[in-house]
Amino acid sequence: MRFKSPPLFHRYARIIWTIKDYLERDWNVDLAHILREENSCADFLAKLGAANAAPIQYWGHPSWRS
């Protein structure tokens, strides 16, 4: 599968280009869209990362408490 490159002025051009590069490699890739309401763990981590000024956060053990 061959993709056109995204416009250079696009806000997410680098990310889109990287994803397209991965999809063109010689391997099988399946993509699935999951609504944030159905994936509360990823939604929580994304919001936490967006609100956190630290570059990397590491958790040794997941917390199951709300």
Please tell me about this protein's structure.
The protein has helices at 13-24, 40-51. It is mostly helical and 66 residues long. The chain has a domain at 13-51.
Key structural traits:
mainly alpha, 66 residues
Oligomer: single chain
**Proportion of strand residues:** under 5%
Number of discrete helical segments:
2
How many β-strands, per DSSP? 0
Q: Kindly, what is the distance between the CA atoms of the first and last residues, rounded to a whole number of angstroms?
A: 43 Å
Radius of gyration: 16 Å
Q: What series of H and E elements makes up the topology?
A: HH
* Helix percentage range: 25-40%
Query: SS-based structural class?
Result: mainly alpha
Brief summary of the model shown:
With 66 residues, the chain is mainly α. The chain is built from 2 helices and no strands.
List the helices and strands and how they pair.
Elements lengths: L12 H12 L15 H12 L15
